[in-house]
Design brief:
Helices cover 0% and strands 70% of the residues. With 292 residues, the protein is mainly β.
Length: 292
Amino acid sequence: MKKILFIFFIVLSVNLFSQESTSKDSLWTTKGKAALLLNQTGFSDWVGGGTNNFSGTIKFDYEWEYKKLGWNWLTNFESAYGLAKFKNAPFARKIDDRVLLQSIIGKEFTKNLSFSAFFNFTSQIGKGYKYKKDSENNEIRELTTQAFSPAYFQIGSGFLWKKSEKLWLNYSPIASRLILVNKRFTENLTDNEKYFGVDKNKSSRYELGANLTFHSEGSIFENVNYKQDLKLFSNYLEDASNIDLDYLVQIDFDINPLLSTQLIFQLIYDDNAISRLQVREVFGIGAQLKLN
């Protein structure tokens, strides 16, 4: 019987819900999107090698904006959770997991410039693991993170420069950050170890510093849109020159009304987590459905 070569690849990205609503009488503008991304790769007698796998990601984004008499209040919620399962692997692995709630309120005192206050919360949905092999070469995993462990809360005041809804920068010279973790992750630490900056037998860490948040979005070419977010934080209480960084850029290529390609690139530096630059890349092509 002749060997058969078979490779199967499907990427399905369906925006289940996307809407923007406003009216002349309303002070609120809202828009949102829910998306489902499915990926499957299969191999049979593929000389180059490869592992059958299936992955799926669910995303939800929503934004509220209020404007009246120089007041501007912008709140957005973002979440994503994705898993990948490889053939013969005992465990599924996470490919995305994040929760973000951010709110910025400003009172304009000159054109494009406002006094501002902000609140920010970030965490994750599911459990995170470190994978390794045991003495018999079996894959095992060790729990490293979970929902609200860690969880980051930030609050501060400062100045908001806003040219439009698509281009703005918020700087808070005084910002507080609280890091919460489950004590189960700190009770077995050595005296010199820390868990996301939290000391042994502790469940929280307080930081006082400065925060900068930058957002821009727009079109690069026809049918090619981008969105980028940059967040910086410096802790005055410890190593102020060691700045935490979170930079994310997303580029959408609309091939036609039903097909699109999405590229996501993210950089994170937080020496409380790991003293190295973290890099994440996501690329997908598939079908989309927008309902406005």
